[in-house]
Design brief:
Number of strands: 5
Radius of gyration: 20 Å
Strand order of the largest sheet: 2-1-5-3-4
Oligomer: single chain
Helix content: 10-25%
Strand content: 25-35%
Length: 159
């Protein structure tokens, strides 16, 4: 099979907490530093003021975003296509192409603690894929006994 061609433009989603920043038409020659600046611009918008208060490490240590050095963009590590729960910080001096980002890549924001300058953990809430079906399923199973709990401790092997 021939190798996949590099995308001509990228659609980058940048996530933190319950917020998603969509950057469309990103060139493969765009640096990660430029993406950080665009993310910072979006985070400094009037609509995100409450977010900064809610994600601060403590009420006395309010998170301030003054420059793109107050945050890092990272990529979720995956093993066999499934997230591992760890993240790799992207080098701000390298280009999107050099990091091998997919055409529709999701990146995550890792903020820096204002006092220690240490990176804070990635905090993100990903929406359920089937929100409506999940609610209906919960209502239907609330009256029926949970079969998963009944068989707890039993091991069955399938042939």
């Amino acid at each position: 099979m021939p190798p996949r061609p590099q995308p001509k433009v990228h659609q980058i989603l940048i996530k933190t907490h319950k917020l998603t920043i969509a950057l469309s038409g990103v060139s493969p020659n765009t640096t990660i530093s430029q993406l950080k600046k665009e993310a910072l611009e979006a985070l400094k918008a009037d609509v995100s003021e409450d977010l900064l208060l809610s994600i601060s490490p403590s009420p006395s240590n309010i998170l301030t975003l003054e420059s793109h050095n107050d945050l890092e963009l990272c990529r979720q590590d995956k093993e066999r296509g499934k997230p591992t729960g760890t993240y790799t910080v992207l080098d701000p001096g390298r280009h999107v192409r050099e990091h091998g980002l997919a055409a529709w890549e999701t990146l995550f924001i890792q903020f820096r603690n204002p006092e220690t300058r240490a990176l804070l953990p990635v905090t993100v809430t990903l929406p359920a894929i089937d929100d409506d079906e999940e609610d209906e399923g919960e209502a239907a199973t609330s009256s029926a006994p949970d079969r998963r709990q009944q068989g707890k401790g039993e091991t069955k092997s399938r042939l």
